[in-house]
Amino acid sequence: MEGEKRLPVAPFAAAPEIPAWRRRKIRRSKALRWLGLGCLAFIAYAQWRQLTTVDLPKLLQATPRTHLTPYGLSRKRLFDDLETCKRLSHKPQDPIGEGREKNARYIDGHVPTLIKNASVWVGEPVKGTSPEDARKGKGYEWITADVYLEYGLIKRVESAIAISAVAKDTVIFEAKGRPLTAGIIDMHSHAGVDSLPELWGNEDTNEMSSDITPYARSIDGIQPGDHQIQVIKSGGVTTSLVLPGSGNNMGGEAYVIKHAVGREDGRNETSAEDMLADPDRNWRFMKMACGENAKRVYGKVGEHGPVSRLGESWEFRHAFEQAAKLVREQDDWCAKAKHHGVAKLSEYLPQELRWESLGALLRGQVHLNTHCYTIPDLEAFVDHTNEFKFKIRAFHHAHQTFLVPEILKRAYGGDPPASAIFADNMWYKAEAYIGSEFAGKYLYDNNLTTIYVSDNPVLNAQHVLFEAAKGYKYGLPYHAALAAVTTAPAERLGFGNRLGKIKPGFDADVVVWDSDPLSVGATPVQVWIDGTMQFEDAFVLEKPLPKPIVPDEDLANIVEEPVEVGTVIFKGITKVLLDEDPRGLAARDNTYNVVISKGKIACVGACHSELQVAAKAGIPIISLKNGHLTESFTAFGSQLGLNAIDAESSTDNGDNTNVFSRAVDGLALDTKKLRVAHKYGVTKAITAPMFHGGITLHGTGVGFATGADTALDQDAVFADDISVHYTLTSSVKHAKDTPSMTSAIGAFRQKLVKAAVSLNASSDAPAVRYSETYYLHKVLNGSLPLVISVHSADTIASLLKLKSETELITSQRINLAILGGAESYMLAKELAAAKVGVVLAPFQSYATEWQERRALSGAPLTNGTAITRLLDAGVTVAIGLEEDWLVRDLGLLAGIAYANGEGRLSEKAALDLVGRNVYKILGTEKKEKRQDGHFVIFEGSPLEIGGRVKAVGGGVKGVVQVFEADA
Ligand SMILES: *[C@@H]1O[C@H](CO)[C@@H](O)[C@H](O)[C@H]1NC(C)=O
Ligand SMILES: *[C@@H]1O[C@H](CO)[C@@H](O)[C@H](O)[C@H]1NC(C)=O
Ligand SMILES: *[C@@H]1O[C@H](CO)[C@@H](O)[C@H](O)[C@H]1NC(C)=O
Ligand SMILES: *[C@@H]1O[C@H](CO)[C@@H](O)[C@H](O)[C@H]1NC(C)=O
């Protein structure tokens, strides 16, 4: 059975035996013709013999005449070709789940496992639920059950499976009522081909020797030793589609792997082949990409295309034409062979390795995944599917699909492609400029399939489930959000009978979580792949007993745009988490009212008289469930206010690699990013000029209000120069005069020492105002903080030495802070002793670069993360943004610190990570007296997935933004 379903790995597979009847028939009917041909051959041979000295008997022995057809073709090869015809016409089916005795990946000797007392998410509604009800989420629920795993399969999912009823050697795992789901599936990963930390020598994502490389295969570059494969698994991801990159239009073949590698993970061998999720290879997979990448990354004017989307479509169509021609010729050959007998054919089966895989796509044997962001890209590609008659399983990076469901529904084959998207990562290039965090919900409303993916290492796939959680936050129903990383990708990959559900017959890829999987900070307690436990010494976070999320249908009532009002009243505030306890808090039933007047908080508490006045004046009153009043958030270290589209230089302030400048001089306000920041409660930002990408900064930082339209608005800028920034990440090697780390640190020391000497003598020659020395003097006399972008623990060590050397000269303390800090935890004690604060950016580093390679990825793989180690040592920590799109997520990142902090942080202390602590670290907390009018009102907790912004006071224009359908 399984042998028949196997697809050709290479076009020239092993030859079949020629059946005896066929051999006989050929001998009888063709003996005479053979004789004639033999004579001809002899004449030809005699001619040729004159030119060579080959020994005749030996030649005949080597190629017996009976092995050749009348056309002189190899009979063996012709029959091989005929066998290939069978494979060419094969129509793959999704491999079966139920009915297997063993998982084909099962390794003999592995013992069964019984997971007791789990709260199980089956992945489908209860029997009898109508499709309409199921779509709405009815019939889905968490059930209490035991799960029995045997032979790499889920064998039983029942309540109270008796230990006496399972095999004697069964391992028992007590889930203690915790949530259990199927392993998470990431349908867009480059794990293994883009190994972390990134090294040129290990980078095999994209074969860029040509724009059209359907023949390239990601499996040929998968490094089983990529540590990130383990990190990803520690986030409950058991299966990934490893795609080639999107630098060229046709990237090549992709492979579905499971994240169990080598003997340590219970496998027989360390190989990419051993990681294949379907050893029988029923389906093949391919990656293509349209839009910006191919023309920017690959095309070269005057050398080769494409250099425009027009050229890209031509490249696609031309390639499909070649493959279609090959398919046609092969089909003709196979039809002739069948009709006339293969031995009568005058040529072999046409084959061309270059077009083999693309031909297989046209034959319906390949699941195609195409990277396309924009409407023209989607439309052109759908046009290709209809011109060449092939199906597409999913558009990836499908930022604009939610705008054009009808284009998707036009795709060839009557099965509209799914949209594989990020929850809220956007703005990084022009084609990512249009996008919506509500896209998942809007697609779902159009009966289209939403799938969340990581594009690892673009996002850390360890946290791809967090994308689904945010999808839920942004209005996708709870069951559909979970489906978006389980059943939906399983179905699209052709694994619908095997992966994504907890049902008998499915592969035993199972995760037990420490909290509801869609809650903030959800972390696996244990992971099984094909029934084998993956973390022998799992670190388990101490958390209270998990409570399942009750799906909140209100989240689907999206109010995209706020209204601005001066005066409004909120009722139902259950928590006030402000820096200073507001006076006059008179709790009534433990809920408060908040009265806002002219954009400022006028009263918090009972507010009797204000309410009476308001009632008469007809002031709007908004009632909240579990309202929270908090300080607004501050974005630190981003390019907000200096950039609109990351990769578009005309929208960007530009690099400051070789110059020191002031951010306040370049403030560019009223951008989409800033409007979003404000809507999500980030009303303040501290931004410095970029040095050379990422969190690298150079110059002075400006503190400004994200809600301002121009820098001249009242209260637009609250600090012209709030911080002084330098960079000592490996990017520093981009600067003209510092090609090495040693030269960079040396040059920085020279700067500081020179400034220290001139400061000591400065009474007679003060530095020129606004010059670099002027700001360095302020750093040295302690009136401005020095913020260094740095990740490596080694560089931080050098920096701490440099700090004390300089302080010896001036006898004054430098207020040093670190931005980045992936490895800062290694020097937590020293940083605490030197009173150096750390702004973590990213908050959860995943060692993308060498300088971050010792980053801690957290439970169940590591004991703690950077923040827990820093907090334990007494370091002041804040959370920064290494990319601007994260601005929506600041509250949730604080939520992760809270949920996974094992009691280290109160709710207020967690919120301080994205507000007050920034000012504490900069040493400006006292100077910046609380700015009136900066606050946020949430429905639900800002630290939890279901919390959403209801009102934002941004301190400008005397208004608040209110998100209420009828406000
Ligand atoms: C794994 O190795 C064992 C022993 O070498 C062998 O019996 C078994 O067939 C192998 N299993 C797989 C799935 O390769
Ligand atoms: C299941 O786990 C919960 C939570 O630990 C516990 O209260 C309950 O008693 C357990 N049930 C069984 C049958 O062990
Ligand atoms: C989605 O499907 C449902 C039921 O099949 C149908 O009633 C509804 O009109 C569809 N919605 C759209 C936008 O196509
Ligand atoms: C994990 O680290 C903490 C300190 O943060 C320590 O107290 C604990 O013993 C460690 N746990 C293990 C299992 O190593």
Automatic annotation (TrEMBL):
Protein name according to UniProt: Amidohydrolase 3 domain-containing protein
Domain Amidohydrolase: 476-532
Organism: Rhypophila decipiens
Keywords linked to the UniProt accession: Hydrolase, Membrane, Transmembrane, Transmembrane helix
Single GO MF annotation: N-acetylglucosamine-6-phosphate deacetylase activity
Single GO BP term: N-acetylglucosamine catabolic process
UniProt key word Membrane: yes
Highest classification ranks of the organism: Eukaryota, Fungi, Dikarya, Ascomycota, Pezizomycotina
Residue intervals passing through the bilayer: 31-48
